[in-house]
Amino acid sequence: MTELKGWLLAENPDSRTQAAFGRGYLGWLRFYHNPLAMIGFVIVLTLLLIALFAPYIAPEGISSGLTGDALKNARFLPPSAEHWFGTDGQANDVFSRIVIGSRITLVIVALVIFTAPILGFIIGTVSGYFGGWVDILLMRITDVFLAFPKLVLALALAAALGRGLESAIFAIAITSWPAYARLARAETLTIRNTDYLAAAKLQGASHWRLISGHIMPLCLSSLIVRVTLDMAGIILTAAGLGFLGLGAQPPTPEWGAMIAEGRDYILSYWWLATFPGLAIFTVALGFNLLGDGLRDVLDPKSGGQH
Amino acid sequence: MTDPKIPAITINDLSIHFGSGDELVKAVDHVSFTVPAQQSFGLVGESGSGKSTILRALAGLNTHCDGQMLLEGESLQSARSKAFYKKVQMVFQDPYASLHPRHTIDKILAEPLAIHGFKNTEQRIAKVMEQVALPNKFRFRYPHQLSGGQRQRVAIARALILEPKILLLDEPTSALDVSIQAEILNLLNQLREELSLTYILVSHDLAVVSYMCEQIAVMQHGKLVELLQVDQQGKTDAKDPYTLQLNLASKGYDRAVIEQFIDHD
Amino acid sequence: MTYIGNNNDHLLEVKNLNVEFPSVHGSVHAVRDISFKMGHEKIAIVGESGSGKSQTGRAILGLSPGNVTAEKLFFDGVDLQGLSARDYREIRGKRISMVMQDPKYSLNPVMTVGKQMIEACQIQMKVSKKQAISRCIEMLEAVRIRNPQRVFNTYPHEVSGGMGQRIMIAMMLLSSPDLLIADEPTSALDVTVQLQVLAIMDDLVKERGMGLILISHDLPLVASFCDRILVMYAGRIVEELEASKLDQAQHPYTKGLLSCLPNNAIKGQPIATLQRQDSWLDGTLNAQGKLI
């Protein structure tokens, strides 16, 4: 263990890999000593594990399959040892539905991560790097998207594309990339005139090499931080769309849709809306704390020094 | 080998403007000079004299120029080719700003090789680090883990790794302590001898250029005031009042002399 | 405020001043046991980056972010260490002033020069606006700005570096301080402007009988300008000497700093470089000028 630590913290690494690992380890150390960030990290990690092992954690599945009298007796049961979070109108176990719903939440998160930020990142860095008419064109397009209120545009898109989870995700992605483009452009502008970029140009580096090898790595950390912080908002928007009936459709155990179902019974059967609500709250909080922690570790303004 | 009789660099009637209309600034105003191959040429002047602008224009970082720039007798186009960068490299003033903060020394030195498609990366990096006297243990460190002098050695190594013929040096020592400056100047002189390099050295420090260069161009407000030959003793035969004033000023504080200064503010 | 004794010949007395910065790798000792006395004269603190020269200036002003301890830190008979934060502010505003390296960072970019000066003047001297304006104009004239009215209405980015530094000095002089601490006041300026700014400071010291501490890295320049030089290395004063006797410097570090200048090198031969010795970290010079 101490040997590994010495290898990681070596002042004079012997190879590229060691240098990269050492840098990662220093970041982890800083992250590790930030209690709030660790709480966020544990929450997000738990979400990942729950989603991964959902079928084993929730053996009752998303629907009880009961009918007739059996359904009548098993529906709207309050939380108990048997049904931790109670049952809903179809006698489905709410706990199981939330556990399996975590997969949907993660799918939303993953799909949004791999679309909006990447699109925004490329548009922003290209725009900032080239400047001139490229910048003007790309930024006016960005402005057009920014001019719409985010939720209203998402609502309109989701309504136009038809109800369903896919259209909700698409709507979220299309409304959230401009913010990343702006961020990446602003970061690029501060780097654009630095000497190290001029030095790379003088080595004959191509535009794409400068953008991908020199500019993007420097903008990446603030983008990661921003995306993590936005994750909470994305989950909330997805839940909001589900709640309004434009996202995932029942009986899909999407948390927002589950709250919408429970809305009618909020006074008589409080557990239907409360537990999905708590799940959304916890995960959103987890991503926010993680984002704050990552900012402390990754922020280029802290110089990347220890 | 190139013919030593062809000058490494010729600048003909170079003018560079920034802005337009009322805001027009003539950063460089009809400047001409030639730099013989394997010589060291100094550009000296105060801030705003246009000395760095000329260097950046030569490197292709400023594109708004009128006039002619020739590299080994051939006229330079406004877009520089890869072959140009194999011949001409630049060292910047501030070693804290000219090295990418997220790249290790190894990556910084490997990058130019990758761009130009060199295969023997390992040998070249080891060789160039030896040339600038950087111990191998620094190879996988990040710039912020090095001192100012070590960083400037890395910057020089990066410029040398493509084995250029001409180095453009933009105030290479003015951000460093004097004891480190001495080491870097010695290194530059030694490299010039070993590798038969041509230098264009920009500096505000008359003492530095007199020590390093065979010829000095004194710049003021974008104009070339005087072209001086430096003799073996490092002395120049300056005649222009501006050069004489610079000379006096670099001698230190003397109340009587300062009274004679012509104000440029 | 307590006045101890009546030793007016010592404007500033520093004995065993230490500045430490706590860090995860153990504390960093930026200034180690430095002692000096000064009267109404021009002294220079010279050293390379990291020698602790700037930290010394900040510690005297009570602006150091580190832990400052000293056996004695007396300014004109006042024990600076015993002052409350409020009294220290009072002293800093009225009796000790500081000029920083780069005027660009010391002036507020969105306020005209005149407005900033008037504000500073009113805070420090509690005078009416009219009196403040005439005082400011007077000070701008004192630093030989030819058209003070015009400078009054400009924004900081509209003035040149030399002009900006003159304005800073004028601001620092508003309250007629007894001691001016200048931290690399001219390093960002061109060499001729540098000398002109120094000349202004020189005159002011002479006319007003101020004390001046000039913190600089440029040994030959301060030697031609100041009365006395303190050479710092690794947080300690390794040598104290009369400026006129610089050529008789004893410490190998001081000598090394002089010999590594390109002015003193022979063309075509390498410049002598400084070979740092571990003994410089703690050794002292004896009476014969030998390092022990």
UniProtKB/TrEMBL annotation, chain B:
| E.C. number(s) listed in UniProt | 7.4.2.10
Is Nucleotide-binding included in the keywords of this UniProt record? yes
Q: Where is the ABC transporter domain?
A: 9-246
Q: Where in the cell is it found?
A: Cell inner membrane; Membrane
Its keywords, alphabetically, are:
ATP-binding, Cell inner membrane, Cell membrane, Membrane, Nucleotide-binding, Translocase, Transport
Q: Which reaction does it catalyse?
A: glutathione(out) + ATP + H2O = glutathione(in) + ADP + phosphate + H(+)
Q: How does it sit in the membrane?
A: Peripheral membrane protein
Q: Could you name the domain of life of the organism this protein comes from? A: Bacteria
EC supergroup of this enzyme: translocase
Look up keyword Translocase and say if it applies: yes
The Swiss-Prot or TrEMBL record annotates one GO molecular function as: ATP binding
Q: Explain the purpose of this protein.
A: Part of the ABC transporter complex GsiABCD involved in glutathione import. Responsible for energy coupling to the transport system.
Family the UniProt entry places it in: Belongs to the ABC transporter superfamily. Glutathione importer (TC 3.A.1.5.11) family.
What is said about its interaction partners and assembly?
Answer: The complex is composed of two ATP-binding proteins (GsiA), two transmembrane proteins (GsiC and GsiD) and a solute-binding protein (GsiB).
Record's protein name: Glutathione import ATP-binding protein GsiA
Give the organism's phylogenetic lineage: Bacteria, Pseudomonadati, Pseudomonadota, Gammaproteobacteria, Alteromonadales
